[in-house]
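# step 3/5: fold
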Amino acid sequence: MTHSVLSRSVAAAAVASFLALAASTSAFADEPVTATISLGTPGTLTLPAGDAVRDTTSVSVSSDTATTVDVAVWNSDQSAEVKAIDLVTLTDEALSTSVTVPVTDLAAGSYVLVATPSVGTAVTAPLTVGSGTPVDVSLALAKSTLFTYAYSSATPRSTTATVTATDETGLGVAFTGKVTAVVGGKSKVVAVNSSTGNPANVALSSTGLGYGTGTATATVTGNEGTTNASDAVPLSVRQLAFSSVSIATSSASVYPYKDYYYDSVKITVTPKSSAGVTFGATGSVKITRNGKTVKTWTLTSSSAKALTWDGRVGGKIVPGTYKITASIKGKEGSTKTYAKNVVVKSNKLVTKTKTVTYSGAKAFARYLGFDAYAENACYSNYPRAGYVFCDADAAAADPDDYAVMSFAQFTIPTEVQSAQKYGGTKASATLYNVKRYYGGGDVYLETDKGTWRAATLASGTKAVGSIAFESGAKKVYLTMGLFDYSQISVGSVKVTYTYKVLTS
């Protein structure tokens, strides 16, 4: 035991002897009073001593009666006292006090703080001493992408690097160190330190770094002399520059005549960069012919630009080949250019018609009878040559169904099929010399793409109406349906096609 502990033990014994003597010489003396004390929870201490980072911790000592209390640090299994801390006297006027426990002369590890009253049972509290070694170092970047030009808040040139170092207790330790960034084959170092054990912040800019993707790492040394590093975190540096620009057109040719067939051309200009954000630019889109500029637009942003040209020069249609040229430059880098041709043509769409006439017998060459006795039928060349006669003599299974149906199928002429790309293609049908003897029925006009139109059959000339083609239609169908106990004949059918062709 050290000299200071021996002196404090002798003093405690002297006090006990004095109290025993006073009790034996006084008729009114009481027996020694047993004290019940309590001990607060000490905070963690951190090495090294003298760096002002958790060098001391305060702990409260209190009792329910006046007494003296010996406070000391013992090893974890309480087999030996390691360090004497204080001998405190608690009086009736002050039954509680605070004791300061310093880290001096203690090594890293786990201890027990023991408070022993002069008369009574000792109490304990766990005490931890951290090594102060930066065993866990971390680096966080507020922004992991930097730019070489600060165009807006979305293109920062610098970021805040936060470095944290803790020892095995999980508490922060004081350190000195650096943050090293390596991007595009270039590196830079910025100093960082913490004298309090709190996380330290330092500004890291793109200046001096290359372009591309790299990393940043923090390396720190604790006050006790040990050096450790963080894991590398990603860091990239980008330019507000373009790598290329492209032009796309809605069509290779434009037909400025106002007929709704490629009357104008849509021009989409798409700049490409690695910035990943929108930024300012300078540039233009020009349309030229034989070296003369006929139309110009201005480019001010890295965003794609959609433009429309009516194909006219001074309001006039001037056929020929025109060059579209896009040029653009970012806040950095070189100017990028792209060119593409578009052809102006004077052709325009005109509407044509084509009519095909069929005899009733040739048109309605097939039929289906919906009865149990095969009496419902259609007959060719009756009541005269070229006519078709349909007779629904027997009842159908359902009174609301057709008793007999006759079918006509026509192939759409080749020139009409080809004209569908211009739009507006239609077909109409007219039935001539229709005779309804009795009963009634309907007629349907449709294409193989599903568009259709219906009309009620009546004597005389019956126009079914017109239907518009969907792209790719190749067939037109006419269908007659007769109800129970109906007779109807048709002399001829005329199919009229309306379509458009592109003329010079």
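# step 4/5: annotate
The helical segments are 3-25, 360-363, 414-418.
# step 5/5: archive (pending)
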